[in-house]
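so my prof wants the structure for this chain in the tokens format not the other one, which i didnt know existed until like an hour ago. anyway here's the sequence
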Amino acid sequence: MTLPSITSTRSYSAPASIWTILICTTVILGSLLGLFTNVYKKQLTKEIYRDAAYQLTANASALASAIDSRLLLSNGLKAFVVNELSHNDEINPAYFDTFATQFMGQIEGIRNFSIYPNGIAKYVYPSVGNEKILGLNVFTAKDPSVRKNAQRAQLTDDITVLGPRELAQGGVGLMSRQSIYIDNRFWGFVSVVLDITPILQEADLFNAYKGIDFAVRGNGRHLLGDPKLFDSPKLLEEVELMEGYWEIAAVPRKVFLDSVHSKIKVIQLICAFSLLMILYFLYVQLTQKAKLQSLVNVRTNNLEQAEEELRGQLNLLENKEQAVRYMAYHDAVTGLYNRTYFNEHLGNLIEKSKESGLTLAVLYLDLDHFKSINDTLGHIYGDILLKEVGQRLSWALNGGESISRIGGDEFTIIVPNVVSSDQARDIAIQVRELFQQPFLLKDTEYFVTTSIGVALYPDNGEDDITLMRNADLAMYRAKEEGKNQYRFFDGTMFPDAKETMEIKNSLRRALERDEFLIHYQPQVDVPSGRIIGLEALIRWNHPMRGLIPPSSFIPIAEDSGLIVPIGERVLQMVCAQSKAWRQAGFPPIRIAVNLSARQFGQKDLTERIKQIVEDNQLDPGDIELEITENMAMKDDKQATLQELRDMGFKISIDDFGTQYSSLAYLKKLPVDKIKIDRSFINGISRDHKDEAIILAMLLIADRLNLSIIAEGVETSEQLSFLQDNQCHEIQGFIFHKPQPAEMIEQLLHKQSAIVKGQA
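here's what i got, hopefully its the right format
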């Protein structure tokens, strides 16, 4: 009996086709596994570097915050010194020690606080350990970098930074220095010296358990870690300071990269084993399609998971890009669009309107009296108010309008596809009504209104700059006419709009460049013919336009708030000129200086005026302060007037009779003189009512024992009327026009010569 089956089995060999399938399967799967492990290795390495980059960015941000927060301490020290000097001639060491102790105990890494009058270290806290600093003159220091830093700091009001460097008292540190000017004169410096190590500790740069190795250097000086990392840094972050920059170079720690290599090796071994198993099962169960299909399904699921992970990474990147874009185009306080978005959006809408022929409107909003909220409650509550304004506008406007906060208390609304001006008017009215309800701040209701300017495209401008400018001008007209209202731009109402904008933009530069001049108009005692006083009148010597009269720029300065520094500069110039005349041998002569309403609103007005007069070694009686009738009649200003008068200043009311004051107020006002306005003087010999008013003023002044002077006297008829009615102090063109100081000096020479001749 034969056993063919057994014989057949023993001699069985796999067909060539099966080996072909196995070889092809091995090549294909081996290539896929190699590609997969390579991609996975790159992904793991990328994640390690990404995590390292995140850590490095966090450390760089922490380092920048730690350095900046300490450098800014010089601002507080400067404020302390300025405050001390405003009340005393010198710094009180005890107060200085108390001030410095508050910060030394709370913030680590402060080596010392120091004050350098005239560049010489006089006050240092703590004194122990910092003895080498006392008496150091930074302008003559041996170290040239110290001298250069002192010279640079003297020329700027900003914080200057020196270091990292070796400190005179030992160790490596960072030093901030800031200059102090008192009344535009250099007084000295304040300085804060910082230890480097606590700064690095606060930035978490000594943490041994981080996943990166890094090195730190500041302004080129190596401070921490392996300096070789800067040769070809894998990861590098720069920390920009007020001056100079620091760098942090980093690489992932080798142990993490090695772990990736080990993980890939393990995966490769597992994959190789899997491949052998697959080949085995293919060989044994080649015909079992179900099992093979299962294997294919498993592999497909793995690939889908990998694809899902990649899609998630892409979505993460897209979300980050959207967040950055949001920050670039939105205001941080209100969440509304910002100026950048507004400018781009307005330009795009104008281009679309040119193509479609449709009209659009720009509403320019400026909050009325917002500054008083900031000054009274502080900027935090000011921001709360701005956020509430943004919410009200967003809730009320939902018809396709674009709302933006472009800065400060200014908002804009772009209304596209405007059918008629009535549509823009309705929106302006709707916006104005939003501000009729009070704002609740600190459990108190505050009423804040808005002034609105409206400009239409293309009627009021065919480009974004013109349209925005005209909306701004219309807004200012709304403010001028009483605020809490809207105005449409009308070119006939602003014939000098362009010139007004140019003057507004040039005023600040004029103040910085000393372009203002003072002309003086003599005040004459008619019986004696002597000059008994002068009125100081400002002129603007514009480099392109020449002399600009005050009527062209004073209202703009009042509106912008620049009238405060301009008024203070005028008083300084007048006092300096009075001192110069005194030193030249002329007898004292009183000079009248105008005070604006904004100046009068300063809380420290009396101290500022007193300081300027004392700096020029003048007697307060040499200065006459002119205020308007409206300012004088305000109850909250009378205490200030009385304080100035008690100091010895003469107080006069300018433009008397032109407002709506009460004579009952006049008898209790702390004033010395009233000035008859030129509008009444012009009516002499032409209007009996003006003459009657002048006679009444003369009688009132006589009964109240006040001096009185007539201004704007230009004709002999006017002079005769005033003399006949016992008004002998005259100011006007009939005697002298306003003249520069050199011409006034010649008049004073002549008067002195006449007086000596009569003697």
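also thought this was worth mentioning. The chain has three domains: 50-252, 330-488, 527-537+565-757.
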